Amino acid sequence: MSYSFLDFLGLLGAVGLFLYGMKVMSEGLQKAAGDRLRNILSAMTRNRFTGTLTGFLITALIQSSSASTVMVVSFVNAGLMSLAQSMAVIMGANVGTTFTAWIIALFGFKVNISAFVLPLIGLAIPLLFTKKSRNKSIGEFLIGFAFLFMGLDMISKYVPDMQSNPQMFAFLQSYSDMGFGSVLIFVLTGIILTAIIQSSAATFAITLIMCSKGWIPFELACAIVLGSHIGTTATPLLASLSGNVAAKRTAMGHLMFNVFGVAWMLCVFNPFVNLSAWITEAIGQGNPETLYKFVNEIRSTDPDTYNHLFDGTMFSDNSAVARVAVLQMSVSFGMSIFHTVSNLVNLSIMIWFTKLYVKLVEKLVPAKHKEDEEFQLKFISGGLMNASELNIAQAEKEIAVFAERVQRMIGMAQKLLHMKDDSEEFANMFSRLEKYEDISDRMEIEIAHYLNRCSEGRLSNEGKLKIARMLRMVSEIESIADCCVGAGKILIRKQQSHVVFNDEIYANIDSMFGYVESAMTQMVKLLSNIDHAREQEIIVSYNKEREINNFRNQLRTANIENINSKHYEYQAGIYYMDLIADLEKTGDYIINVVDAVREQVRSVPA
Fold first, then answer.
1. Which of 31, 171, 332, 346 is 20 to 30 Å from 380 at the Cα level?
2. What is the pLDDT of residues 14-63, one digit of tens each?
3. 202 with 63: CB under 8 angstroms?
4. How many other CB atoms are there within 10 angstroms of residue 371's CB atom?
C-alpha cells in the first residue's frame, strides 16, 4: 500500500487550506458588508418567509451555514431575535449552504484551478496595501477564494489514490453493495466527517472528488451529502453550551430540523436520487450515474488505461480521458442539484411547521426557572464568538441592558434618602445598592472583555471605531453606578454625624434626582436603538444636561444664603451640596455616553 502517513498529513493540510480559504473569504465579505449585513438581519426577520430569505442571503454571503447558524444562536442568546425568527433563518441557511456547492460545481472541473489561483492572488495583493478599508476587504475575499480552490485542488491530489491502493478500493466496495444498508452507512459517514471538520462544504468537496474519480457511485455520494446536513449541526450545538436557554433551544431546533429532513428524505431516497439524475440530464449535463459504471468498466477491461486515467499522464484528447472529463461535470452538477433540491423541498415542507418546532423545542429544552422564560441577559456568553463584525450588535444589546440595570440604582439611591436613619430598611437598601454596583463592575469587565475579543477578529475600520466608542460607553455607565453608591455613602456619613435635613433640602434633592432620572431615561432610550438614533433626541439629552447644571448652580448659590440666614446648619449644607455635586457628576457621565452615541450616529453614512 503506497499511501503513507505523510500523504495523510498532506490531505489534512489540503482540507485545512480549503477551510482557511473559506474563512478568509467569509471574513473579507463580512468586513466589506459591515453594518449592511447586520441591518439585513434585523430588518428581514419580521416573518418566517423574510427570515428564510435572510438565512439564505447571509449564508450565501459568508459561505458557511455553521457560521451563520452560530451567529443566529448568539443573537437569540442576546435577545436580538426570537426562537421562531431563528428557526426561519436556520431553514434559509440550509439552502444558502448549497451556494458553495455550486461554486465548486461550476468552477471545480471546468477551469484549470492552478492556472487562475496565482493570478488571482497577484490581483488581490495590491488591494491589501491600499488605504481604503473596503478595497482591503475585497482583496482578502479574493485571496480566500483562491485558497479555497487551491485547497480543493490539493484535496484531489492527496485523497487516497484507489488505483494504486486496491486495498482501500476493496474496503469501499465491501460497503457499497449492501443495498439500503450502504446508504445508511454512508449517511453516517457524512455525519461523522462533517462533525469532525465542522464544514459541510469541505465534506461536499471531498465527496465530489471521490465520486468524480469513480470510487463511489453517485447515490452513495448523495448519501454522504445527506449525512452532512446533520453533521453541520455540531458547531451550533457546541456554541450553545455556554449560552442561555434560548440559545440552547435554537441549536436544538437546528438539529431537529435537519434530522427530520434527513429522516423523511431517506424514505424516498432512491426516487430522489433518480430525480436529481433526471434534472441533470434535462439541463444537458448528462447522467451523473454513468461515471461510476464507465470507470469500473475500464478498470475491468483495460487496467493499463485505468491506472493512468486520473494521474495526468494521458493526453486530454484520449477518448477515455475526454469522456471522463464530461462525466465529471455531470457528477458535480448532479451532486449540487441533489444538495439544492433536497434542501429546497425540505424547506418548502418544514416552513409551515415553524410553530410546531418551537413548541417541541420548548418541551425538549425546558427552562430550569420561570424567570428564564422571559429573557434577561446578565452577561455576554464567552462561547459564542464567530463573526466579529456581526457580534457588535450583540454587544450593543448588552450595553442597553447594562444601562437599564444601572438606572434602577438611581431610584434606589433616592429611596435611601427618605429612609429612617440607622434602620434595618436603610441597611438592606444600601446593601442592595452595593450588590448592584458589584454586578455593574462585573458587567463592565465582561462586556469590555467581549469587545476586546471582537476587536481581535477581522474588523472593518468602522467596526474598530464603533468598538472604541462602545468601550467608552461601558466605562461611563459603570461610573454612573459608582455615583449612585457614592450618594448612599454620603447619606451614611450624614447619619454618623447626626445631621438632619429639613423639608426644603429634601425637596431640592428630590428635584435634582428627577432631572437626573429624566436624563438617564433619555440616554437608555438612545442606547436601545443606537443605529436609528435621531439628532433631535440627542439634542434633548444636551438640554437635560444644561438643566442639571443650571439647577446645581442655583442650589449652590442659595445654599450660602440659607446657611447665613440659619435655615439649616452649616454641616447639613455640606452633605446637601455633596449629594447635589454627586448627582451633577452623574449627569456628566450620562452626557458622555450620549456624546459617544452622537459620534456613532455621525459616523454612519446617510
1. 31
2. 878 877 876 777 677 666 665 565 565 555 555 667 777 777 777 776 65
3. no
4. 9
